[in-house]
From TrEMBL:
<feature type="binding site">
    <location>
        <position position="42"/>
    </location>
    <ligand>
        <name>ATP</name>
    </ligand>
</feature>
<dbReference type="Pfam" id="PF00069">
    <property type="entry name" value="Pkinase"/>
</dbReference>
<keyword id="KW-0547">Nucleotide-binding</keyword>
<dbReference type="InterPro" id="IPR001680">
    <property type="entry name" value="WD40_rpt"/>
</dbReference>
<dbReference type="InterPro" id="IPR017441">
    <property type="entry name" value="Protein_kinase_ATP_BS"/>
</dbReference>
<dbReference type="InterPro" id="IPR015943">
    <property type="entry name" value="WD40/YVTN_repeat-like_dom_sf"/>
</dbReference>
<keyword id="KW-0812">Transmembrane</keyword>
<keyword id="KW-0853">WD repeat</keyword>
<dbReference type="InterPro" id="IPR008271">
    <property type="entry name" value="Ser/Thr_kinase_AS"/>
</dbReference>
<dbReference type="InterPro" id="IPR000719">
    <property type="entry name" value="Prot_kinase_dom"/>
</dbReference>
<dbReference type="InterPro" id="IPR011009">
    <property type="entry name" value="Kinase-like_dom_sf"/>
</dbReference>
<keyword id="KW-1133">Transmembrane helix</keyword>
<dbReference type="Pfam" id="PF20703">
    <property type="entry name" value="nSTAND1"/>
</dbReference>
<dbReference type="InterPro" id="IPR019775">
    <property type="entry name" value="WD40_repeat_CS"/>
</dbReference>
<dbReference type="GO" id="GO:0004674">
    <property type="term" value="F:protein serine/threonine kinase activity"/>
</dbReference>
<keyword id="KW-0472">Membrane</keyword>
<feature type="repeat" description="WD">
    <location>
        <begin position="1377"/>
        <end position="1419"/>
    </location>
</feature>
Amino acid sequence: MTTDTVPELFGPYRIEELLGRGGMGEVHRAYDTGNDRHVALKRLPGFADAEFRARFRREARLVAGLDEPHIVPIHDHGEIDGRLYLDMALIDGPDLKRVLADGPLSPSRAIEILTQVARALDAAHAAGVLHRDVKPANILLDEAGNAYLADFGIARPLADDVTKLTNTGDYVGTLDYMAPERLMRGEVDVNAASDVYALACVLFQCLTGRVPFPAPDTVGKLAAQLNDPPPAPSLFDRRIPPAMDLVVRTGMEKDPKRRYPSAGELMAAAAAVTAESPTAVSVELPRTGDHFVHLLMSYLQDETPTPGENTADSCPYPGLQSFGIRDSDWFFGREQAVRDLLARLSRQRGGDGPLIVVGASGAGKSSLLHAGLLAAQARAGEKSLAMTPGDRPVGTLAARLAALTRTDPLRLAGRLWERPSDFGELCRVAAGENAPLVVAVDQAEEMFTLCHDPREREVFATALASAWPARVVLAVRADFVEHCITLPPLKPSLDAPYVLGPLSAEELARVVTKPAEVAGLELEPGLVDRLVTDVGAGRDPGALPRLAHALRETWRNRTGNRLTLTGYQRTGGVDRAVALTADGVYNRLAPADQWALRGALLRMVTLLDGGGIARRRAHRSEVPHRALESLVSARLVTVDADAVSLSHDALLTSWPRLRQWVDEDRAALLVRQQLGEAVTNWRKGGQDRGDLYRGARLAAALDWSNGRADVSADERAFLTASERDRRRTTRRLRGFVVGLAALLVLALVAGGIAFVARGEADEARNEAQSRALAAESLSEADADPVDAMRKAVEGWHTAETVEARGALLSAPMLTYPTAFKSGLRQGYAIDVSADGRYVAVGSGEGEVAVWDVVERRRLDIDITAARTVLAVKFSPDGTMLAVSSVDPTDNEVSGVKVWSIPDRKLIRRLSDVNEALGPIAWRPDGQAVAAISVRADVTMAIGEFDPTTGNLIRWIGTAQPNTISIAYSVRGDRLAAGNGAGRLDLWNTANGTLVSTNTEHLSTARMNEDGIVSVLVAFSPELLATASVADNTIRLWNPETGALVRSFRDITRHVTDPGQGPSALVFSPDGTVLYTNSNTTALSIWDPLTGSYAGSITQGRRGGSSAAKTVLAIAVSRDGRTRVASASDGAVLRWHTNVSWHSSPTESVTGLDISPDGHTATAGDASGAITSWDIRTGDEVGGQGRLDSATYAVRYTPDGTRITGSITATLTVTTTRGGVSRPRSIHLTGREFRGAIAVSPDGKLFAAAHGAPVRLGKESDYRIGVWDVATLAQRAELKAGEQSPAELLFSSDGERLLALTNNEGTSVVGSDTDGTNTATLLGWRLPDLTEEDPVRLGSDSLITSVFTPDGRSLLTAGTGRMIEIRDPRTGRVLDRFGRHSSTIRKIAISRDGRIIATITSDDSVVRLWDLRSKRLLAVLTGHVAPVNELVFAPDGKSLASGGTDTDIGVWQLAPDQVVRRLCANLADAGETDLASIGC
């Protein structure tokens, strides 16, 4: 401050520098002259409207009432000179957002900060205040590192029906941290769980340095928050423990009920991950029964309600939803049931098992647990664990318990899986010296309706039955008790369940009167008697939801503070209130939406045996958005991450319209339900032909599915397979039908139908058949890729429809299986050469076959072996093959021999004093083979042998008896050996020392009669994997030290299976995939980073039979493209990776381009990795590079120079001459680059847009730099101000540089702070870059643009969802076409200007358009997540795409070339009769 500046005075405050500016005013550093201190002074602008003034006053009132050390305290608040102000303590330090700008925090520091924030949130929630804007910018840090939660400017009380202060109904908060329920429901029924979600988002950002769902626009963020699963932080930084993934996932669950109940529990679980697990101490059992006696006494004393203060605006009746713990003050009528429950718990003993509460739907079981039992436990200050099972009950139980025990939740889940009986000990540790833990499992029927794994149900039930001294209470619907009987651990509990019956007249009266008394409401005389009479005391056990709904609607119709009979009558009464509300929602919809709502609601219903109906879950996309909003607002449905379900069974019985729909559609509902069960059985049975539909069932299902748009992919694949099977057995009938069809045509002609009309009918029929074949091709892509390719070709030759073109161009992207007979009776061992060309198979009869899979012929090489071939291994260069075989009756023929593949002859037999035997492994350099032999001292050892001489090179270490598997590490410095006694040894090959040994597989194995626990070993670059057929656990170890990294269950196996684990395993060369034969008829895929099962690759069709054979051995080529397996019938199964896909990126693809010669593609991802590969072969070229941060652009100049840009504004120009690359970089300090870049047509210039990092109170400052490609000299720096450049482009003639910009807006609902959102075209004329007048393009945000090759038109697109053709000079829209389902993210155009390709923000397809006709050409499917990047090859014959699924696809666009390729693929797959489809 200069001496001549007069400081601003505001009452007693002297205003100093600006600290920040936001939606609720400005915050200045100020000096309080009255109290001699510096403060943070927040002031609302004088022109603020009434809504903002009310919100500002509310912030002052709410925060002033909070007393917690980590909430920024308020000294004073009021109004001076017409401006509202807030005097707060000055926290002299940065906010967390500024700290994170320097990178992520260590896990310990992140947890230290956010644990303090969690305490602040829990204190606010306890006081009934919801923050609603938890984010790094609102977390302040002082010099000592203490954290403070600030800015309660949009907080609100937690009362359900508090008056909203946003008159627009817009969302308030910051989208990056906003819980899905706030996006779906606005502020209706939102509670503290939304703040827990936001805190979990902040935790993720602290650990990774990025927000959970980054997206360039509002639409993308909305879609991600609503639909995408929570990201795993360990994927971004391997130093983050994988167990933290479970903590973040639980905190960010889409369903609020499945998150941690409080912010403190979230951070306790996070802290447990980084801390050592506490040692379980022996605690003397407390007198557990006394605690529940005390609870009972306290409950008896607290039964008298206390009238509330100023609560008349809060509805004390929950409607169709249940009471929660926070609603206990409103919970009446079930006092006796609560007393009974506490008394039963006080009398329980260790062998009694869980207490099961049984009641009809609507009896109030959930309210009894939460507002009764758990509320009593909470008032006593004791711990409890509440949950619903969901589809992963064991994982949910572990996540909840981890917060209480401060243990690693991932390890806890594994421990519960392996030893569920430990749950009691864990509960005791959680409770400590305090009263026993109470575990409440609500909606226990979800064990049967949502969890489809019988083994997980049994593990979960066993854990609950072993919980003593904890008390477990399960609430289950009466009609599911018989299901509980199937779980042996629950049988003791079923001897004495607690039955929750109907309410008496007195209890019903308390349900009505006592909440009103607490809320300060008056009841008109006669209203209570009328309600009790209408409900029918003691007659209907499920009447509570209808009564609560009628009371809630009566409250809405209240007169002042009084609930009246008239208001009640307007609801339609207890029996009709639900129907009137539901009919009101239905009647307000347009006819089309009404019909869609009918179909959606029928998807939420399932038929029961005996003709009854029950609720089921429907996908959220099936419900029209307007209908969904109305249903949620009326509390008729509940919504979670991707599903919608009816709020209560009362809707099934109390809404006549829904019952009528069910009766009208009962037959179709039954068909669909039975179809779903048949599909499940078909999948479980390995897609066996015997499970397919036939005859009348098939006819009924096909008739039902005809013309329906809501048939699932699995249902469609099942029906297609059934229909194909039917056609296979009725080919003769087809000829007869064709004859009849010909006779019918003749009859129609004879009847006077014109030839032209017949031709039109034929064309229409062909088009319909073409579309049907295309749909079947797409639906079968995963289940039967070979048939999908066949139908794509057939559909295209039938009629060239849009759908057929899309299926045809998508089919080459499929990876398909091939199978051929090896000539052996069975395949005990298999290997594949480094390049995938040769496959060797060994049998149990001493035979070895070597096949050239390219030429599809067996090599003429006579390999002699003993009776059983144990292993066949190609050398790393593929020129030699080592074969190990054994004959127990003849040691002379047993041993290891090495053969030359090019010469087709034996090289040497490996031996020292004795012959080498048993398992073998090639050293990575190919100079040695490791094998077992007997030394001169008659001890067994592992030795290295020279493959060219057969002589011993050196001994590595002692071999254990029955060693059955050995493998070298990738670098060759370690060798692992597994034997038949469950032992794993890890050796240092350099000095022959034993690094580690363990027998963990032996300790967890299910022993068979022979007692063998054979351990298999396999290395990746970063892990050592082990498994055993006798053990259900796959383990991953540190390959250097042998320390356990993680373990996981083989979930494909059941406890009753003879084999508990796989008998073969191998890594992909890059270590990202672990393959096993766990699914014995397929290749099972595992993610070694998380231990999760990723599915399986099936054998495909085998000679027309669906009976897949057992996979005995597996191998992967050195380049990772070919996976092979040998089957029990001697067949070789082969899966060759499609070169159309490139999967090196490990994160979202954020930059992509193709070289000018069309041979090389280069991609960059969000981790900063840069990868180039040959499009023709799929081979990587030049090695992988890495930028200093996330890649945001890749561009080639016409001469092949490559330009890349990273988010930290580092622009790198790489020229390659003579095979040598020379990178040169520009770094723009303090700037950020977000992807807008362009290269001039002559390749001499490039332009890139950059901006300053977002800082509170700082205006945006966007600029565009123009550089010389050859010298990197900057030609100009052009200013865009607050206009954010979305795209830069040079005109086709190189005379203009254009920037497509949007002015920055911060509102979640898509408008600027000033209410506008204007797209603008900025322009500069070359060569001197003279600025042109800006051109306004409209109110839609425009995200992408491209010139047509002739330069006459500019194509733009964005949130308007259509492609716009504009005059590039005036910006005037000349035409619009191509309606899309969401925001158009990218446009690309072929060099000849004929084809346009587009991608959107919320689907994973690529759309092709004909620019001349402005019609859709095709929809390309293959990506599994939204696409980010799109570029045509220079010749326009192919197109590359890359997206958030981390894959890059290269699509061929010429149908004739694609047909030839598909026909070759079909021949390779062994298909016959290809001429019939036009091949």
